[in-house]
Write a structure and sequence with these properties.
Helix content is about 25%, strand content about 15%. It is an alpha/beta fold. The strands form 12 sheets. Strands 35, 36, 39, 40, 41, 42, 43, 44, 45, 46, 47 and 48 form a 12-stranded mixed β-sheet that branches. Strands 33-51-50-52-53-55-54-49 form an 8-stranded mixed β-sheet. It has a 6-stranded mixed β-sheet with strand order 6-10-8-13-12-11, sandwiched between helices. α21 packs across α41.
Length: about 2000
Amino acid sequence: MGNSYAGQLRTTRFEEVLHNSIEASLRSNIVVPRPVFSQLYLEAEQPLAHNGRTENDDEDDEDGSESNSPPIPYQMKPPPEGCCTTDGYCQAGRDLRLSSLASDSLDVLPGFMLIGLKSPALPENLLVGAVDHRFLPDERGHNALLGFSGYCMGCGEKGFRYFTDFANHINLKLSTQPKKQKHLKFHLYRNNQGVLVKGAPICWRGHGKIDGRIRQLSSSLPEAHATSDEQSTSGALMHSSHTPSSYAASHANGAPQISDTPHSLTNGIHAASSVAQTVINHSGPGRPSATGLQTNAGPPKKRHKGWSPESSSSSGLLENTGKVAPSSSVLPSSTVSANGARLDASATTSSSQRSLTTHSPSGLSVAVPDQLLHTCGLQPVIFKGHGPLPQLTGNFSEVLVSSLLQSCYLSSQTLPRVYQHYGPSPIQPLSTEMQILLTVYYLVQLGPEQVPLIEDLEQIFMRSWRESHLSEIRQNQQPQIPATQGRHYGIEAPPALPGLPQHLGLAPQQPLTPSQLPWLAQLAASSCGEGVVVLGEQVGSLAQGLQQMFRKLMEGRFENTNYIVVIVTASGHETQSCVVVTGKHQCRALAENMFSPNEGLREINHQLSSGDAQELIQFCSSLGQEGDMDSLLDSATLDSNEPSPLSSSQESTEEKTVKNTHSPKDSHSPKDRVLPPKETCSEYAVEWRDIRPIQLAVARKLLSHVCAIADSSTQNLDLVSFDRVNFLILVPPSEVTFQQTVLHLWSSGVLRELGSVEQDCVSQREAERYVVKMDQSAQVRVDSLIQEAHSNSYTLYILVHDHAHWDVSSASYCNTDTGLGLVDQLLNSRQVRDAPNILILHVTSFPFALQTQFTRISPYNEIHWPSSFSNDVDLYHERTRYFGVSELLESTRSGSSLPLMRCDSSFESMASSLEERFPKLHSAVIRTTVLIHHYCTALMAVSGRIGGSHNLHKHTSVETLGIVQALLSAAQQCPAHHGHMILLRIPSLALAAWAHRRLSRVRRQLGLEESFEIILGNPSQPLNVGHSFIDQIKLWLKIQESDWVPRTYLELEALPCILILSGAEPQGESLPRSLKYCDLRVVSCSYLQRTTLEQELGLAAYLLKAESRSPHNTGPGSDLLESDAEKLSSTDNEEEEGQENGKSSPVSSNQPLQSSPDVGALDPSPTQSSTSTSPDAPKCTVDTTPSPSRAQTQFPSQSSSQSFIYHQPSLHHPSQSIAHTYSLSQPIFQQQILSQNQLLAQTNSQPYFQTLPPHQVSHPPTQSLAPVRPRRHPSKSTSSSSSSPRASSPHLSCSWARGVSRPPSVLLPRSLYDIITANDGSGLPRCTSFLPHMSVAWASSFRPLLSKMMTCTEQSLYYRQWTVPRPYHMDSSNRTEGRSDNFHPRRLLLSGPPQVGKTGAYLHFLGILSRMLIRLMEVDIYNEEDINLNVQFDGVHYKPPNALWPDPDVMKTLPFDYIVHDPKYDDISLVYCPGYRPASDANTVHQEEVCLRRRTTRIKLSKYAAFNTYHHCEQCHLYLGFNPRYQIYESTLHAFTFTHLLLGEEIQLYFIIPKSKEHYFSFNQPGGQLEGMRLPLAADRSPNCIKSPIFTPTTGRHEHGLFNLYHAMDGAAHLHILVVKEYEMAVYKKYWPNHILLVLPPVFNGAGIGAAHFLIKELSYHNLELERSRRQEGSGPISDVWPFIILADDSCVMWNVVDFDARKYMLTHGPVEHAASLKQVLQHMEGCPDLAHYGLCGIRKWSSRVLAGPNQRKPFSRGHVHDFLLLNVDRSQNIQYDQNRFTCHDIDFTLRLHSAGLLVCRFNNFSVMKKQIAIGGYRTFIIKTKMTDVPTSVGPSQYVCAPDSKHLFLATPAQLLLEKYLQHTSHKLFPLSTKNYEHPVLSVDCYINLGPEVTVCFVSSRPHAVNICTTGLLFSGLLLCFADAFVTPSFLKKFSFLKGATLCVISADRSSLRQTVGRLELEEEWRFRLSDEFQTANAKEDRPLFFLTGKHI
């Protein structure tokens, strides 16, 4: 957003992609967009913070008015010279005083407002200014942008972006920091006379004036207004429910509270006034933000003296500062007002007692009748509406009062600010009368068993308001909305809600008057009979109406009335109202809803322990005519003396040990007992340990996000500084979850991969060190990790917060004893936040609580689980297919099959009747008792242990009977006795324990102890499984350890068992694939948040085998229910977004789900059978041949005397009473196979159930259904469960093996089922519109609905915009921490649906992150053996291998090695050397092939390595100089000119010198003309200084060049100069701002490396002469100036030195090398005593095997040196680099240097490692044509052409074309030289590469030159390249040539070419032809080179 790079590299690709995706999501058809500028800068309106201040209160505290600290002195910027400084005038001299401008005509730009400014010098007057309205608050003090935008009304100067600059311009002359809050005081407006006058004060703190409507409402409603906390708790107050067990969702913490604290409306407390913006906004001048409202989540960006949650009053977003998190035990159980009435849980305040007294009209009170509960059997709930509620006296404890309806009213009466931008607006909120009438209509359309849902009523209000003002909304938005953005939230009206009368679709055009309201309301209520009663016409006050209501209620006149609406429309007074709930079911639901979760559990415990439930237990134990259940059980067993199960104190010793002890004295025969299996099951396999492809993909996505953080310019994560990974996984305090995570970690191999433990000693006990439960022990573990992180800065620590939604409580609101708030205390601590090497990964299936306006997680750091299928195409080659909540919902819509998710009508009916019978008992107690009674009865019925005269089926439900039958029958069908798991979800620990005891007793008395296990899943306790079942599991899993016990539910795979899962909510426990039924019939219906519902349904989430899915799936499921798991996020796979409509569910919506043949068709299968002939007939899965084994699996609808398992079933008719009992009350259960002689059909009124034909109900068949179609052949689509003779095959022998390919069935309470299966206006399930989590609140009632097509990212942005954390949420304090960006930079969020494999994904992420860090610490080093090593020199005396420095006299005796050994020159011509014989097997290679096949080795970087620009560490920040947190380096450009005789012209170079490096240079004056570089003296000795300047020529490697020598130099001072081309100057300066740049002249932009080295050497020599002259002028020694420079390649990464101390090892195994710093290498070489005698020094190139040869053990040698050179510019002044060369320039230079008699020495005890860099460099050449200017495939033969010919010219330097031509075509040019080493080509004064097949003999024509002896040598060619005067005819006559040898003469032009031929008399011995003249393929203006060839005569 306009930020300068400031020397930083900013990687924006990831942010741009995500930002573009977010922008696309904003083009929704229901969003109210803002203009582009607003989307970028304008922040949405925020609710109040809990300290009473608005979110965007600017820094008005800092004026000192509310602070004890002294004001900060401020010195204003001095005005420019000559400007006006008079008070009241601007600097341009124009008058700004209001008194002067009042009558002037002022033009105000659109969007700006005239404001009055207070000047300290003019207290009696105002100054007039124009300010952008977006930077000013509204009348409530909300929504002012940070910053300023305005212009001067005097001179008209615009563009003031800072108020400080504006204050200076208008001459405010302040002594303190200018604040717009302090000086922008009043609005200005023109009165009726057109005079500009002072208007309302600007409301900076929310104390400004409010429009008359709000003030009028305030006067009539003196009570406090509800906050958003009250109006939107999960659905907030009420929910749609159909059973007496239903709960209404309460306040997030569930405590009974009320919002009656008196607050003035002018404080802007009520949440309705805080309406959020309707678009996803962007933050201000910082980086783009896609988070909507959270961009202003923190305090103002500068100086916050008063910004503290404790600094202001307690009135805030939520008035109750004493609230605690959900399930917290410190919250009071209920709040009682002064009159004693218990109030609702939504908004209790500390002054609720005073509220009901103070705000009631004097003398008005209502007496609650005595015995109200006893007489009416209910506890009425009074919802406050409009007006104050009168005081309740008398028996007030039997009345409940709630203010949530009032909160809904108030929030719906505050307009969004988007409609208030342009002055007076015709848009008005809903009137009080319309709200009341709509409420009546809503109550009328509710069913008798439904409970009102606040979201429905709120949406009705919003829809009515939008439709009544549709035209005004459009008109008001036209100036703001670009035409291309289409429809939006503001004008898109949702479809009509269910039951709302259509004539209210559009509100009446005429306003509804108070006098019309009562009779219209009564008219509406008359349509439902007595269901809704309106008291209005004869009611003069609310007190009178309530008294009348109580009287009639006691008289029984409201027995059939569910709701009573009291309306008061007294003349001259505001309309008042309240709603009284009198329906028994509704009152019970609302009453239980007022309990917090913990309070509800305590109430249940109390009822159990006090014996209140004893009567209920006894009632349920009665079986009517069949007798008592206990007596029947006593008759079935010898041991029946069990005490009452109600109290734990009554539990017998036998019951306490029933889970571990299995009675051996069962009376049944051995064949009836399930003995340990002797046979094995071939179908059994445990697959949960395997890592799946999609998990690998998610792990890589996590890694890419971590890399994106590291790559960003914020430098919040320096990955390259870490060498290892450590981690700690935080899980909820569930023992099973803890052990489950440990098991996953142990089996994943991550610990071995990270090197945390040895390969052989990894155990689960070892893995427990890396997992911690979030209890009190977590504090020590996390503190230890923090301390370890501080001491190990090179280790990256990952804190994985699994099941992250479990605890989002603020530590300041929680008691430490509760265990809540630990996450906030530990993970949000400053130590963790500021640690640069700690990264936090939140993992959750329900991320909504972490996606609020004040979230700490950036939207760019969210990773969403992708879909593995798109349009039925497997994207990740998955073997499994996820089956979750969306698919469960989809199964309810497939009308041709039994849905997997259903409710039990029989159970609901019994529970409902018992709730009416026992009104004082909690519904959870009643429902649990009924459920366990059903299970016990079903066990008795199925076991066959009860006498035949007792028909028990009617005392249980068909669902429960089928579940029990499936449990008992599954193990009988498998030789290994594999079975299914049945999950009973009972949240109350006490009820769960009672249920476990009860079921265990019944199982024991029925003798079924060996048939299945009953497991109590207590989160705080480990698993307890019977010994015999443990032995079975050990046998299945092949475990040999004698003390092994299962610790996780996953290890119970295939164990037939009933798991009773307790706890307030699931805590991340994974369930095995043998789960067949998920029984949720007793889960709480009170807290309707999306998270609560989805995590309960998530227990049934399942991974199916991919091949078992239906091939014809249709229709998408509800994507939003699983955080859009079936959609691809816009940040995940954007290319898949267009395919979302076509994706399918594993369960077909138009095909039946098949029954399971092993349980009597009790469970649907996602496959389809085609064996049925009629579409109306059920899809039966029967065997074609009857068998006893099949008969045992049939449904037990037979006589109760018939045994199911232990006796063969008879074929008699079933009891007719059973069929009659269930035929009309049950759905079509999966009972298509009931027995061989009957089919029991059931019907249900639900439209999606397929019913049987009537004749099948009335006339059940009398023979088996198996042979119905014995001759019919199944079609190709027939699945394995269809009719076939395969029942006896091994494939179908195991029920468990068939079950793993079928998802479990889910049983829900009726209320939840109706809510989940119902859709809202957008087509989504209604539960998606619920509050996402109980710890957050809606930001506004004017929010849109979630869209069905939203991706995961768009959902996140939705919640980030429309939800705010409550005060007890851990993120509520995030906005007050003083950061402009509230996001934690190293915090990630991984979200995915439940049970999908997130644990395996993040464990794999830890592994690949560790591998990546190791990879980052490693580089590819060239590791190649030297070439051409068979050179033999005889009589050479070697120095000792450990000699420190070379002796010049000895070095002169060593022969010079002409052979090039560097492997990078494997493709060049050999240099002829007499003692060398080339290898016979040498192959011809090309340079391109060499580059591709060069051998590298990965080596870990040492601490002395050189780095590129991606390396950032604390040590070298100052060295690099681009981090804005440190000094910002300034650089200056200096020209340096010198004359070179060889070029014949002046050379002008440019130095870019940072200020910090200027001391290395000399100037004629400070900051003046550059004179030269300062050079040290040769005698200088400094241990921390390198004397030689380091020159590094580079091109194309501004990012990847290894220029960071800080670590390599080990802190030594050094002069490092980068030599760059002119066109690359800017980019190198950007990436390396603290480096000195030497910029080559523009003429060398296309030159090669030779030109760079040429200019470096000549510049250095010229500078040496200047330095000597400067020292001579200072009377210093001129010869003592240091003459050496270093020429280093930009890929030198590390240096090594031979270890001289390992002498013994050297003698036996060869030398040993270790890493050395560049400082050590250079100081050693510079310390050589006779270094001045050498012209050139170098070091060896590293190779892992180069030290093995005998020739390499000598410490020094003479020969070619490369890449890292120490050059003596003084001794080599007469030998220059060839400035025209592109290749082999160093070989050419070394040969000429040696021929001149200068010593060349290579230090073999040092070596340099070169990193493989594939980008840039001087070896990268592009051959392109002059026509297209793009790289083309031009062959080497086209590099030259005949002079004056029409040829394709190339835009490539001529020298490069010539070199390439000679390299690739020399075998044609010199045919006699090809592979003819004995007859080389003679090259005079230069070396040119003629290709690897040609040998070149170098000779120098200089006098006294050192050349090889050529006597007797016949040359096969002669190469003369730019022959100078030293080449004479006599010189050439010294050499002999073969007949037919080739001559090649090269010159700069044709004239000099002919002159050379003539001067050298070449025509005497060489024959030339006219066709033998060539030129390079360059145009004339590009100065081509010419060459002539000839043959020797």
